[in-house]
């Protein structure tokens, strides 16, 4: 059996044909594919407005700017996430305020979040880590109670449903999806802002398009000269028609792809559930909650640490199996330590979990035989570490 990668996009002839057709159409930017993709993602998340952008990071940045977040403001977020969820706060000129996480869901702890709110708090960026929507309703209520904006970073959660029946992407003032190649659907690069606030959506449309008015791309307005009229500082955060065409083809297959990811996650669960040295992903117990599987990340038990975790990863790679740590804590990244003075021990739950996380290969087309090989190899590496501890 050849090397098993950590992730792999699910691309079929349908996606290839859609991209080729768009290339042949002569319309490569700001066209019908983008509009259709915006409607599809907004509808899938229960929102009325979609704004396609060049990445999830661009989407988060645009939303914070559209909400008026800037210098002097504080934005509460998690230290256990991909660095973009905090970087976008800095990009807006505000200060990130981290709170520790719940050791079960790995999402922001609601009680700690509420305790961190001050007179300077302008927003909360709540990340659905690994596709888990737990605590989002609580965080939304906290934001409403304190009259601060909730921004849902659902870049990892497309297709998820909470225990109360709410879909990922339906929380707060606005939500942002990402479509990097390892996500539930991919556009190569790309993101989507979804919201029910029409004015907020229009501000984001202007920000993504060099500060032009949202109507500037329409024929009559463009002919009248509005294409070269810029109402505010903006950015080139547009999504191309090629990217959107790929997204539309992927969205047409979303239910089947989510089912495939649930199958892979289920196979992992069955094969690893009796391994006492591993903590498996925690899924809501309620039957009406649906996890959107972005990655499959296990963590070593409390007796292990970063050294043992890294040796296991190296051992998996020597056996041609993709494996990785997931995530290093943001506050311990060199740039954040130098700028804000963060140190080890500031957020102990996130730090302890981060040192023991291990991402296994995860993608739609991963077959049962490969999963068995991965699990057997992982068990072998964990058994080795247990023996070394004696």
Secondary structure blueprint with pairings:
Elements: H1 13-25, H2 32-44, E1 49-53, H3 56-66, E2 74-77, H4 84-91, E3 95-98, H5 110-115, E4 121-127, H6 136-146, E5 149-153, E6 174-178, E7 191-195, H7 198-208, H8 219-223, H9 241-252, H10 254-272, E8 278-279, E9 296-300, H11 306-318, H12 334-340, H13 348-354, E10 357-360, H14 368-389
Parallel strand pairs: 2-3, 2-4, 4-5, 5-6
Antiparallel strand pairs: 1-7, 6-7, 8-9, 9-10
Main features:
390 residues, alpha/beta, Aspartate Aminotransferase, domain 1, seven-stranded mixed beta sheet, three-stranded antiparallel beta sheet, 14 helices, 10 strands, 41% helix
Task: Please characterize this protein's 3D structure.
41% of the residues lie in helices and 12% in strands. It is an alpha/beta fold. It folds into 2 domains: 13-252, Type I PLP-dependent aspartate aminotransferase-like (Major domain) (Aspartate Aminotransferase, domain 2); 254-389, Aspartate Aminotransferase, domain 1. β4, α6 and β5 form a beta-alpha-beta unit. α3 packs across α7 (198-208). The mean pLDDT is 94.
